[in-house]
Design brief:
alpha+beta
Amino acid sequence: MERKKLYWICQIGGWLFFTLINIVFLKLTNALDTRQSLSLFFLFVVGIAITHLYRSTIVRLGWLRVTPLGLIPRVIAATLIMASVIYFFQFFIEAAIGITDISFSTFNSVVAIQSILNIAFVLFFWSLIYFLIHSIENYKKSEIENLKWQASINEIELNKLKSQLNPHFMFNAMNSIRALVEENPRRAKESINQLSNILRNTLTMGRNKVIAFNDEFSIVKDYIQLESTRYEERLRVEYDIDPKSIDFSIPPLLLQTLVENAIKHGISKLPNGGNLILKTEVKYDTLYINIKNSGQINIGNNNSTGFGLKNSEQRLQLLYGNLASLKVFNCDDNNVLTELMIPKQH
């Protein structure tokens, strides 16, 4: 609903409710007649006019930006002034239609003060509701702005991490090919073709935050084939992929980075190489990915896991918060286990 329409509904509804309460009170005391009804009608119209003028004053003087401590004395003063205006206007209206005597000899100051305070209480309640509604709206706006700002920061951070990751991957892949150029030119040529396939796939990803699991898995298989050319029989790979994994999306190059980490910091350091087991499992709306590789990591040595792991943790945090997790640990004396958990995006 539009703010202007909502304002007038509340304005008219509020004063109508106040008028009805007075009608009920007069009815109970048998004091309701045509002149009293006319007086209440004028009170209804004057109340709307005065509070609408009050709202315009609030906006023009910038009271919506004033702190609560600075606002309280302003509201008290304004409500007393408005209450006085309404009371004396009503007093002269009732005198004009013959309900009261306008002579000052019959004017009761105590009754006048009580009436002004009663009206002031109603106006103070009106002010409280008005400022409360604006406070809630401003809070919602600030929350939305904060969310937009945070989303922009996350987008910038994600793009920065991706831009860091691509050169890192290229550097490692080119090092692998360079080692084959003199040793085995034919295999080096095949590796260049495989690298071209990987780069073609990464370029088609564009600036996507996530890609289909199958697309990422295709890159992983090309990368493992590229590394198999270098390590030959020292790299032994097994796959156990849950068919339901195709229903999930994951950050691009995330799985490839973890596989690269397992090979570079685990299997490559062993004289006889080792095993790499890539397994996925879907439970409810969560994809569990396990990468088990031969080797050991030194918990106290940050270099034992490499740059790619830190990059992956940051990307997961930015995209999923606490809904995703990544753990790397020694699962026994001869193997390292990487556990990745990714929720399904709806």
